[in-house]
Amino acid sequence: MAAAGLAAGAGVLGGAAGPARAMPDPRKTRTYHENMEYRRLGRTNLMLSAVSMGGHWKNIPFGHGTEEFRKNRREVIAAALDHGINYIDACWSGEVLVYAEALGPKREKIYFGFDWTLGRDPEIVGSVERLKRGLDEGLRQAKLDDVGLWRITLREQTTFNTAREIENVVSALEWGKKSGKARFTGVSTHHRPWIAEAVAKYPALDVVITPYSAGSREKPVGSMFEALRKHDVGMIGIKPFASGTMFQSQGRPDSPTKAEDDQRARMALRYVLACDVLTAAIPGLITVDQVKNAVAAVRERRQFDLAEAERFEQLTQAMWANLPEGYRWLHDWRWV
């Protein structure tokens, strides 16, 4: 059972890639729950829940901004906090405002990571001042004094960002931390080779947010993980379910295949959490039942038995084969 090590706060973290580092006491983290596992987010020393929350709300059967929608987000956030989830990631202004409102007075119970102005917009990322104003505006509208993690969203393939744009992002992140408006800083990108080079070059990158899906594997040689371990950079993993392709229902709630899809979700989370570099997986959770199911995966054993391993291999092979056109880029993440 994974629960055997959930509260092991006095251990030491280290290995061949770097010096041993003391593990912070997870019981002192935000929204601690004895049945949740907490992992160190690299050199930030934050202890995040192994299952956390992505900001997306695909397949919610309510219009954005309606009372039903806001009620859903409040209920899901409340369930997440009740079960020890302590990180939420919002990657654009709409998500920031939705979750700031849903959290209300409970904002101090969770680590909030956000980007207000996307670094995918050349007009924004082309100006350090525009990036700075984006953080200021996000804090103002969300009614926050500061943010735990300011993570700027770069283009999916970072080579599409110019060298000047990358330097602007780094300068803005350095300013955010120096000003005290962002406790920690990082980027979100889907480009592995760039990550491996960037974490060595830019100390402002405390954290990277990047894909790690069911079925992804570490390269035996030349893995991005080698650089993350060496430089003690935290990793938060998106797309654990390959944007719903893992499921028979494509992730729709209350479908006839809910029981089967819930089991697949737990298997996927068990698999990705077996990765020692990954701090947290951040699926988009859209119902209270999905929160409970995701949290249940933390308490299940990570190692598959032979029958589970064979079934999981079949599921992930079908997942890779059936990626929708807009997500075929995930094939690049079969080997990390």
Q: Please write the string of helix (H) and strand (E) elements.
A: EEEEEHEHEHHEHEHEHEHEHH
Helicity level: 25-40%
Give the uncertain stretches in residue-range form: 1-12
Q: Strand percentage, roughly?
A: 15-25%
The radius of gyration over CA amounts to 19 Å
The CATH C-level class name: Alpha Beta
CATH architecture: Alpha-Beta Barrel
Distance from first to last alpha carbon: 26 Å
How many β strands by DSSP?
12
The largest beta-sheet arranges its strands as 5-6-7-8-9-10-11-12
Q: Tell me the number of helical segments per DSSP (H or I, 4 or more residues long).
A: 10
Average pLDDT: 91
Describe the main β-sheet briefly: 8 strands, parallel
Remind me, CATH topology?
Answer: TIM Barrel
Task: Please write out the topology.
Elements: E1 12-15, E2 18-22, E3 38-40, E4 47-49, E5 53-54, H1 67-82, E6 87-90, H2 93-103, E7 111-114, H3 122-125, H4 128-142, E8 147-153, H5 163-178, E9 182-188, H6 192-201, E10 207-211, H7 224-231, E11 234-238, H8 258-273, E12 278-281, H9 288-298, H10 306-321
Parallel strand pairs: 5-6, 6-7, 7-8, 8-9, 9-10, 10-11, 11-12
Antiparallel strand pairs: 1-2, 3-4
Helix pairs in contact: 1-2, 4-5, 6-7, 8-9
